């Protein structure tokens, strides 16, 4: 099965329910082991990237990441373009539930045009690399006025085999309540779709905003790579 077939065969209704109820969803085995290895092995090919960030230099954690250049590698471009139309309706429902006058277009092409019209021209998909002691501090990826409220990661190594620790962590900040932590352990090739900034949650008086941040817990050993796909471009 190729990537397009895997995406077409995903149960997007179930994903939408999970995103609505929990703010995240897991899609197992969106990439094959070979596809994961291919992306990982290109980490050293600097012609593919526009910028390298050493996380400890910015207080972002410990590890490094590289932003891809346009044109994106086929798998990265394909994931971004083919997944977007399946979750744009979820984002539109969220805006409506929260009374925010914002609609996201139906295709990635249109979202990209909207970003460009707001001087957000730089691609945001990235590949990350953490070693022993590596971690990613809790954060949100916004990058400008136009931001799509969901993003995805694909884990490119096998936990327990290639690395230890290094769980994916979400913190849900609920109004007038203490925060809730969600710890996920995606396997190699598994995709997580999650809330970038906030989502609606139903309370006794209608919907309210629940803020989310994401990060990665400390690795106790090994090496962990992640592909991250953010749908909006950066200013
Ligand atoms: O390495 C991870 O799992 C998190 C990556 C991340 O923060 C992102 O892709 O935005
Ligand atoms: Fe992030």
TrEMBL record:
Pfam families, A to Z: Oxygenase-NA (PF09859)
Gene Ontology MF terms: metal ion binding; oxidoreductase activity
Domain Fe2OG dioxygenase: 121-234
Bilayer-crossing regions: none
Alphabetical UniProt keywords: Iron, Metal-binding, Oxidoreductase
InterPro entries: DUF2086 (IPR018655), Oxoglu/Fe-dep_dioxygenase_dom (IPR005123)
Gene3D superfamilies linked to this entry: q2cbj1_9rhob like domain
Family recorded in the similarity comment: Belongs to the iron/ascorbate-dependent oxidoreductase family.
Record-given protein name: Prolyl 4-hydroxylase subunit alpha
Organism: Mucilaginibacter gilvus
């Amino acid at each position: 099965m190729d990537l397009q077939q895997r995406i077409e065969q995903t149960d997007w209704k179930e994903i939408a329910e999970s995103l609505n109820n929990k703010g995240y969803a897991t899609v197992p085995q969106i990439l094959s082991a070979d596809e994961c290895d291919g992306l990982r092995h290109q980490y050293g090919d600097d012609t593919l990237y526009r910028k390298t960030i050493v996380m400890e230099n910015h207080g972002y954690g410990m590890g490094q990441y590289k932003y891809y250049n346009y044109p994106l590698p086929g798998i990265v471009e394909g994931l971004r373009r083919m997944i977007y139309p399946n979750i744009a309706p979820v984002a539109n429902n969220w805006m409506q539930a929260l009374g925010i006058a914002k609609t996201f277009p139906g295709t990635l092409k249109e979202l990209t045009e909207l970003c460009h019209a707001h001087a957000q021209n730089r691609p945001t998909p990235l590949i990350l690399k953490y070693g022993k002691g590596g971690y990613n501090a809790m954060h949100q990826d916004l990058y400008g006025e136009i931001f799509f409220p969901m993003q995805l990661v694909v884990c490119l190594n096998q936990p327990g085999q290639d690395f230890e620790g290094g769980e994916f962590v979400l913190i849900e900040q609920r109004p007038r309540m203490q925060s809730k932590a969600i710890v996920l352990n995606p396997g190699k090739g598994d995709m997580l779709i999650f809330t970038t900034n906030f989502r609606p949650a139903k309370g006794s008086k209608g919907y309210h905003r629940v803020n989310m941040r994401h990060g990665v817990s400390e690795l106790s050993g090994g090496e962990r790579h992640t592909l991250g796909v953010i749908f909006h471009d950066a200013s």
